[in-house]
Structures are given as structure tokens and as C-alpha cells.
Amino acid sequence: MSSRYDLHAHTVCSDGILTPAELVARARAQGVEVLALTDHDTTEGVSEAAAAAAASGIALIPGAEISVTWEGQTVHVVGLGLDPANPVLAQGLARQRAFRDWRAQEIARRLEKRRIHGALEGAARLARGSILSRTHFARFLLEQGYVRSAQRAFKQFLARGGAAYVPGKWAALPEVVGWIRGAGGQAVIAHPARYPLSAGRLRRLITEFKDCGGAGIEVVCGRHDPQANLRFAAVALEHGLLASLGSDYHGLEGPWVDLGRLAPLPESCTPVWHDWKVLRTEDSGLSSPPSVLGPQRSVLSPQSSI
């Protein structure tokens, strides 16, 4: 299976393994025509990815995957079609990264108590961008032989119940959706099957999300199985949400699927790109195809059609 759209992917600017230009090249090789760059709490890689996309003939959607604390639960919201220069968005993401920096120090302190030394320096060595995430600590623990897999590192040390787990203290849902909308984007709930939510809590989350201007939900995701895809297609239809799809690509290690290797959206879904207008780059007066612009949701592409 393959998809021309992949609206959730990461680079070394957060916890992926490819540079933004390498991600674009990989997407092109996999047949992706519209790619969203959605690094965690940063838009750092957008300029490099936009230049590579302009040269390679695919459309790039600038985005970010932003962490939210909702009812004590961490939920991720993908912003699609963001203006990286928006000052409110930039300030909000800077706050998120400041918490990440503090959390990294606290994780290292807790690992030190377990006689695991040099974790902060080791994780920082493995991080190639400005984000220091739990994934980098997992890679350090694997590299040093403390665990046999990154998944085991999370279970034993980094996830809830682990020896070095630090609860997230992220921005609130209305705040994050406001940042996204203020920057001209659409807010999408990321990989909903990953959250341990009852049917009632999921309904509350979606109601609050829509009430503050949320637009869509990831129906098809690289971390979903076919049953989850069908379940969240029904959820999108029931709640009037647009449907997105994305590999959540970080690299070929671990549980990730490759870029563009996704099932199609079920026919009952209205795609998040339904109202996007595709323009030729030469018609737009711009030198690159990086954005979904304003309420018209115009995708700038060097191609004549998508």
C-alpha cells in the first residue's frame, strides 16, 4: 500500500534520524507527493525541507507535533500548514522546548540514582537538533547495553511507571489549538489509538478539541493497525472531523513504517486536504512550495496538480 500524502514525519530536528533534506528525498523515493514536516515542538527544519521540496518537485506542508496535557494525559496535536514566523506560535513552542530541557536534566538525575552515569551527555550526543527527547535517552540506554531494545528502555525507565519517568507538564489543549489556528494552520489529533482513553474520555477530548477550533484526527497512522483505522474513521464521521493520515516516520528502526506506506483513508472520511487549493509555484510568485496559506488552505507546489 502507498499514499501520495504523508502528513506526519520527523527529522533530526526532533527525534528522527534523517535531516530535513534527507526526509524529503526519502519521501520522493517512496512516491509521496505532499509531505508534512511535523517535528516535536519545533519548526526548525522547515526552511531546509522547503528548499529540498522545491528542488525535488513535491509539496511541503510546514507543521509541528505539539504536546498537550489534558486531564493528566499527554496528547499530541499536529499542526498542519503553519506559518513558522508567527510570533505567538514561536513563543509557545519555545516554552515547550524549555520544559523539555528541564525534563532531560531530571531524567538524567533519576538515571544517575540508578547508577547510570553520563545519560544527559550521552543523550545530547545522539541528538542532532535542538530537541532532547526521551527517544534520545532510549538510544543512549540501548547503546550502553542497559537494555536490549528502545521499547524496553521506555518500559523499564522512561514511560509511566519507569524508574526515570518524568510526567509531562505541557500546554493546555485550547492554548495549543489557538497557537495552530493563529499561525494559519489546522489542528489534528495525532495517533489517537495510542492513548489509554475510555470511550467516554475520548468523547470528552474530541468535544473539547472541536470547541476550541480543532479540525481533524489521524485516522490512518503508521502506529495504527487496520482495526484502529476503521475505528477512527467512524469516530471522525460521528464527530464531523476531517481525516488525516501520516506514517509518523522517525526512521526504519523500531515500530515505524516507511514514508508513504499507508492504507488509504476509508471512503467515509473527508480528507483534511479536502479544501486545499493547489497552486503552481510559478503562479504564486514564491520561490518554494512550503505552505498551506490562510483560510483558503492553498498548497503551493511546483507541480501543476496534486
Automatic annotation (TrEMBL):
InterPro entries attached to this UniProt entry: PHP_dom, PHP_domain, Pol/His_phosphatase_N, Pol/histidinol_Pase-like
Record domain Polymerase/histidinol phosphatase N-terminal: where: 5-70
Biased composition (Low complexity): 285-295
Superkingdom as given in the UniProt entry: Bacteria
Pfam family, one: PHP
SMART domains linked: POLIIIAc
Residues covered by region (Disordered): 285-306
Molecular function as annotated in GO: 5'-3' DNA exonuclease activity; 5'-3' RNA exonuclease activity
Name of the protein: Phosphatase
Organism expressing this protein natively: Candidatus Muproteobacteria bacterium RBG_16_65_34
Lineage of source species: Bacteria, Pseudomonadati, Pseudomonadota, Candidatus Muproteobacteria
